[in-house]
Amino acid sequence: MQSDYWQRWQQRRFSRRTLLKTTAVAAGGLTVGAVIGCSDNTSTTGKTTTIQARKGGTVTRRNGFETLGVALDPHTGTPTQATVFRLWYNGLLALDPATYDVKSQLAERWEVVSKTEFLFHLRANAKWHNKPPVNGRAFTADDVVSSLNRIRTNDPRFASRSTLETVDKIEAVNPTTVRITLNQPDAGFLAKLAGDAIVMMAPEVTNSAAKYTTAGDIVGTGAFILQDLQPTVSSRSVRNPDYWNPDRPYLDELRTQHFNEDAAAYAAFQAGQIDIANAPTGDDAKRYIASRGSNYQPAWAKQKAVYYLQPNTRVPPFDNPNVTRALRLLIDHKEMIEAWANVYYGRGRHGQFFPGEMESWDLSAEEYEGYLEWKPDKTEAARQANQMLAAAGFTPSSPLNFELTGGFVSPGDAISQQHQLLIAQWKRLSQGAVNATLKLADQPTANQIRANRSFTVMHLGNAGSAQEPDAYLTQILSSKGSRNYAGWADTTFDNMITTQRQEYDLNQRKKLIRDINLYLIEHSPIVIVTNAEMLEAVNPKVHDYTPEYNPFLRGDSWENVWREA
User: Fold this and answer.
1) What are phi and psi of 2, to 5 degrees?
2) How many independent structural domains does the chain possess?
3) Which CATH number characterizes residue 431's domain?
4) Same domain, 232 and 348
5) pLDDT tens string 220-232
6) Rounded distance, CA 368 to CA 360, Å?
């Protein structure tokens, strides 16, 4: 039953090897490849060596979301911030950061009773962190019921609630077994359950007055314990001595140091003050690659969350499809790659809705350039866009004036430059018929503006709770999506989501996702201006590190990272 189930549900690269790997994970709860005692590593000389993994040591990297001043409640925080939470929290399941295969975590194994019924058998040795108010007690099935029902709370603050919209009931069968019953078949359910934000939280904490702004508020079952947090300064996480996997984590400590500017963080890396930072420009990336030798394989990090252009379709004139369609056609995606992604990060790629990490579900770059919006020559796209604007009453003498709300990590950063380029493209290609002004907002402020829908057009990061197509489509674009801030509603599209969700054959499901992508090109007001890839500069003494697209620190992968003495 288990093998047949995975044969139908596997997200990527279905093969006998992958199937065997997944079955082994489900049965034994260990990730293949995380073998204790050895590691393949490419040294600075370009020679591949096999060296002994060791416990101990500290790694310091540039900050993740935890030092940006956002509240650290995984269930009410955005999925884009949730990656860091898995340093301290676990889910029932997790996604392998290298393959995106579903693997066990607090659920040691699971049974697929039917397409709508699952049994999860919990690890007998899992405990909460030994800190108040939980004080190291055993993790139980009641904790699962409490956590998942909290995520499903019908309150806009719970940003990932629609991830579990196909869940009907969650029951504790006994202290170590949980039954989840769905209201309909859902081919992506386990992948969604493995999403970054779908973590277990102790009811003693969630029922308290915790504000999730201090290290004391963070109590999980994860490999690390948050020991110290100073917003806009630093964080320090230490090894959990009671972790359910006694062989992990390797590191004694993971520290992050906050930098407002990419260049300052990279300078600190070059000076040996931190171990990991992203190369701040495409030229820096080229120089770093050259410095590592001819056999070096660059650690390019693909985006797991992207900046979407999101018009508020509940506010005139953005309730007019001609206006939102025109804004899309007036984006020069090729220029976005060449003048922005390549310059600030090193590499870019066309995309419409899925981030780079999900490119196996997306159209190819060549396919995109066959459609009007992405054609390198913008002449025809601009002509049609200006006709649409004129029909809506907007011309160079009577322009469409609006405020573009743009989020940023730090003032003047690459994202801020992307907002400016987008506004310039609109003005140039519309010949002045579109006149947007920029309102910059820091991350917490931008999140609040978006949640309240107090914007006309927004350009801000957004993501589904898991690297699974349905998590993105359902959360961000469906009419009832918990993160559909644009307010777009399309009955045909909603029906297409339901159809792909109930398709268990991988190839057939990919065809349905392709049809959805093509439908979105013609109908959706939401679009990515470009995908980008970031190069991670990593101290050669740090091993088994999975590239992270700053500031999306991948909590799950850090239990396998180790450092040479």
Assistant:
1) -65, -45
2) 2
3) 3.10.105.10
4) no
5) 999 999 999 998 9
6) 14
